[in-house]
Structure formats: C-alpha cells, structure tokens
Amino acid sequence: MEQTNSRTIKINRYYDSLPNMKAKFDRFARKDSFDGSTAAEFEAWRTRARATLSALIGLEKMDSVRLSPVTEEVVMLDNGIVREKIRIQSEQEVWVPMYILIPPVKEGAEQEKRKVFIAPPGHQGAGKYSVAGCGEIPAVADAIKKFNYDYGLQLAKRGFVVICPDCRGFGERRDEKKQGDDEEAFLTSSCFHLAHMAEPLGETVIGMCTWDLMKIADYIETRAEWDSTDISCLGFSGGGMQTLYFAALDERVRNVFISGYMYGFKDSLMILNGNCSCNYVPHLWEHFDMGDIGSMIAPRSLMIQSCRDDHLNGPRGLCNVYEQLAVIRDAYGLYGAEERVVHDVHEGGHCWHDEHLTEILRRFGLEP
Ligand SMILES: [Zn+2]
C-alpha cells in the first residue's frame, strides 16, 4: 500500500459515475423537444411545454398574496438618479427587497410612460448591491470591477427605470447559514440551503426566482407612470438564468438580455457538476435542453451574450453555445424573425459586457 502521508493512502484508479451518466443523458434527455415545422405547431408545443416546465420548477406550489409594497427609503444619488428601496411580498412571509433606479426624465418626454428593465443578480455580487452599482461598499466595488457587475446602473445611466431585486438567497434574502456581515457571507448566497429545503417538496430555486420576477412584473403594472406593455429583463450569469426562465414563461417580458447563461445541459451542468445548486431542477433534463427553453421566448427581442473563454460553456467551449442557439434560431425562423436574435460574442472569461449594449438597444427599438 503506497502511502502519501501519514493519514491516507494513494488511490491509483477511481471508479466514478460520469461515463455512465453521460450515456444516460444521451438515452433519456430531451424527450419533449419541438419536432414540428410550422409556427402553429410550435405554439401548440409551447403551450404544453410551458405547462410541463412550470410544473417541473414548482410554480404550482407558490402562494398567491397581495404585493403590499413598502417604501423603505428614497435617496437622490450623486449622479442625479433617484434610488427607491421598496419591498413587495411574493408569497406568505416572503419579501422581495429591491432598489429601483429612476433617472431624470428626458426633456420633452414628461408625458410618456417610462420604459422599465428588471435586472436580476448573479452570484458573488451580494445580490442587488452590485447590480445597482453600490460601489461605496468595498467588497461590492471589487465584484463590480471583476464582472462589470453594475449592469442595472449602466441601464439607468442610459435613461431606463431599472429594478434591481435581491433574488432568493442573495443579499438581504440570505438564509440563516449564510447570514452575516463578513465578506465571504455577504457576497455569497444560500442557494444550496434553499435547494435542500425546496426540492423534496417539489419546489426549486429557479421556480422561486421565476415566481418573484413575475410578481415584480405585477408590481410594474401598478405604477401608472411606467410602460408595463414593454418590460425588459437583463441578467448576467445566475441573473441570466433567471431571465431565461422568466422570459420563457411570462410574455410580459418583451425584450430579453441573457449574458453568460446559454449552453447545453450535458456539457455545462452534468460534466461541470460542481455548479451552484440553483441550476439543478429535478427531472428537467428528461424533457428539455436549454435551447428548448430559450426557444419559448420567440419571436420577442432576444440578446444572448457569450464569452469565448467562459469556463461555464463547458469543455467544448462555444460549440456548446452554438448548438443551443441553433434551436432558438429555428423557432425564430418559424416567425420569420431571425433578426430579433442577437448573439453578442466577446473575448475572455465569464463577464458581462456593455460595449455593444447601446447599439443592441437601438436595434430592438428600445429608447428610454
Ligand atoms: Zn446559486
């Protein structure tokens, strides 16, 4: 027996499970993908697929409650943007705190309803604090620098009203095990703990986040000064994940911006099996791949942003993105709307990029 140190032995060969699981993915996955050829067939498929997806992520178990909005704070930031802090209730005893960034009204646009973005957060940015650009918090300033994370503030500076919520398990919504003010706890999230509470009950983290975003859309409808007929959603990484499911299931989202979250499940969530628990929905892969879910957004305006060296694309890199995009583009093709899908590719690793954002907003006809 070869000894590595005084307390273990060296194992020379491992009998791990991945090869078997990959074979099972090929055998069992994606049995409910679209296999028709017309827009009418696609819409019939989408109705069924949305019902399946809603059940898989546990939407049927969500409580319906009154939003009961509470305004906690209204401040004028140095850049002239008004920041409201409001919380709404999304389920029994579940509250969604959010920063709402409201830039000054452009001259001559006083009578127009304002365009609103929802900007859900990804991991490791303390929830809404990075997205809303709270760079006065040093740990958040570092996260903003690392991932260009303040996309909520970037949109507000372009003139849009932007809602930056804490999603479940992030920021002020961390569950007990991740509460605390030390930097590690502050930046992280309690997705793992949420998933363990939810999944044996038939709920999922994705379902909880999607439901909360639907409630934010309900809230937008209560603000008469905002245009609730043209809601946009933009998220990076875990925020991209939330944007994907929310837009797939809720037609009120008219313009969809998903960054760093479009790739095939097998490479990116099975081979990369150490990803955060919030990504994993029991039984989902049996029914759909990610492109099938993305296709449900057709023919609304959709930007998918990918970085060439993003490790989350999996070992085959952008190939794993292109395969899913092809499924999405096929759906848009049924509507003759291929030009409404923009694939915005950047060099480098996992990061949000706003270099082409103004141009893409214009292409989608989105003026603040
Ligand atoms: Zn997570």
Write the topology of this structure.
Elements: H1 18-28, H2 39-57, E1 70-76, E2 82-91, E3 94-102, E4 116-118, H3 128-131, H4 138-147, H5 151-157, E5 161-165, H6 183-187, H7 191-198, H8 205-222, E6 231-236, H9 238-249, E7 253-259, H10 265-271, H11 284-287, H12 290-295, E8 301-307, H13 319-334, E9 341-346, H14 357-363
Parallel strand pairs: 4-5, 4-6, 6-7, 7-8, 8-9
Antiparallel strand pairs: 1-2, 2-3, 3-5
Zinc ion binds next to loops.
In short:
The protein has a single domain (24-363), classed as Rossmann fold (3-Layer(aba) Sandwich), CATH 3.40.50.1820. Helix content is 36%, strand content 16%.
From the structure above, extract its key features.
Rossmann fold; nine-stranded mixed β-sheet; 368 residues; binds zinc ion; 14 helices; alpha/beta; globular
Task: Explain what the structure shows.
The protein is an alpha/beta fold and 368 residues long. The chain has one domain: 3-Layer(aba) Sandwich (Rossmann fold). Helix content is 36%, strand content 16%. It is built from 14 helices and 9 strands. Helix 8 packs across helix 9. The site of zinc ion has 6 residues, from loops. Zinc ion binds next to loops.
Q: What bound compounds does this protein have? A: zinc ion
Q: Can you tell me the CATH architecture?
A: 3-Layer(aba) Sandwich
Please state the overall shape, judged from the principal axes of the Cα atoms. Answer: globular
Number of E strands: 9
CATH secondary-structure class: Alpha Beta
Main sheet specs:
9 strands, mixed
Distance between the termini: 70 Å
Strand content: 15-25%
- Per the CATH scheme, the topology name is Rossmann fold
Q: Averaging pLDDT over every residue, what do you get?
A: 97
CA radius of gyration is 21 Å
What is the H/E order? HHEEEEHHHEHHHEHEHHHEHEH
Secondary structure category = alpha/beta
**Secondary structure: helix percent:** 25-40%
Largest sheet, order of strands side by side? 1-2-3-5-4-6-7-8-9
CATH fourth-tier homologous superfamily: Alpha/Beta hydrolase fold, catalytic domain
Please tally the helical runs, counting DSSP H or I stretches of 4 or more residues: 14
The number of domains is: 1
Are there runs of 5+ residues with pLDDT below 50, and where?
Answer: none
